[in-house]
Amino acid sequence: MANSRMRQNKRRRKSARKWIYIALILILCAGGIGFYKGKQYIAKTNKTNKNLKVQQKVVSVHNNKPQKKFVGTNDEGKKYTYDAKKISERIIKRHYSNNGEKIVFLTFDDGSSPSVTPQVLKVLKEENVKATFFLIGEVIEQGGDASRNLVKEIFNSGHAIGNHSYSHNYDILYPKGNLDLEAFKKEFKKNDDILKSILGENFSTRILRCPGGYRTWKGMEPLNDYLNKTNKVSIDWNALSKDAEGNPKKAKELANLAIESSKGKDVVILLMHDARGKEETAKALPKVIKYFKSKGYKFKTLS
């Protein structure tokens, strides 16, 4: 009898231990599954958060994408620059009064030429004023290293640089007097590439001057759309020395014509040329600059 009870108790204890082991195994399994699920959830959550951060970063970068920088001049020259867009609008509207504040932009087309540009730069340095040079790619190529070095000197001296096309060929740019936009874009892109090859890939310019002037040609409306899309500005002039018109003129006459065409204007965009054969323009420049100084004009560049 006693032995029978002992055997029963032993079986009960053995059975209890068995169920305890089973319970422990079930608890461990449940814990492992829970841990695995939890780890999956955390990993999924982290991945979701990471993707969200990436998306937010992409959106932020997209929304804050910087517009292209238009250099046109070096750091020294930046303090002389003026918004070319505002000046272009004045030319279009023929609005040259400026509440008595007088500004003059000396602009030189068709360089850089080894025979004239150095003389112009010398006068500008002596008079301590800055100017804007609208350069032609083909002229630079024809001038070789001398012209390329002059482009560097223009830039390093704090003057502004504008694009005046590669060839200045009216038949290419404006066949039968009408704008060929694709040819125009190719010409100015080719000149841009030449300027970059001299001044570095980071160089670019916002300003351009249409050979012959914007208002001379027909069918220019498509150019307006192109300029707006690319944030570029076409700049004409409202005063000139007539150094590229009619018979050759001496320095005194060129200076007088420049001064006369500038009278009555608070804002003056003066057209001159530093191409080969324009030595008289360089000689006229000191008188022109002294006149504007005497009338209280500030000398600015276009950007």
TrEMBL record:
<keyword id="KW-0812">Transmembrane</keyword>
<feature type="domain" description="NodB homology">
    <location>
        <begin position="102"/>
        <end position="300"/>
    </location>
</feature>
<feature type="transmembrane region" description="Helical">
    <location>
        <begin position="20"/>
        <end position="36"/>
    </location>
</feature>
<dbReference type="GO" id="GO:0016020">
    <property type="term" value="C:membrane"/>
</dbReference>
<keyword id="KW-0479">Metal-binding</keyword>
<dbReference type="InterPro" id="IPR011330">
    <property type="entry name" value="Glyco_hydro/deAcase_b/a-brl"/>
</dbReference>
<protein>
    <submittedName>
        <fullName>Polysaccharide deacetylase</fullName>
    </submittedName>
</protein>
<dbReference type="GO" id="GO:0016810">
    <property type="term" value="F:hydrolase activity, acting on carbon-nitrogen (but not peptide) bonds"/>
</dbReference>
<keyword id="KW-0472">Membrane</keyword>
<dbReference type="InterPro" id="IPR002509">
    <property type="entry name" value="NODB_dom"/>
</dbReference>
<keyword id="KW-1133">Transmembrane helix</keyword>
<dbReference type="GO" id="GO:0005975">
    <property type="term" value="P:carbohydrate metabolic process"/>
</dbReference>
<dbReference type="InterPro" id="IPR050248">
    <property type="entry name" value="Polysacc_deacetylase_ArnD"/>
</dbReference>
<dbReference type="Pfam" id="PF01522">
    <property type="entry name" value="Polysacc_deac_1"/>
</dbReference>
<dbReference type="GO" id="GO:0046872">
    <property type="term" value="F:metal ion binding"/>
</dbReference>
<keyword id="KW-0378">Hydrolase</keyword>
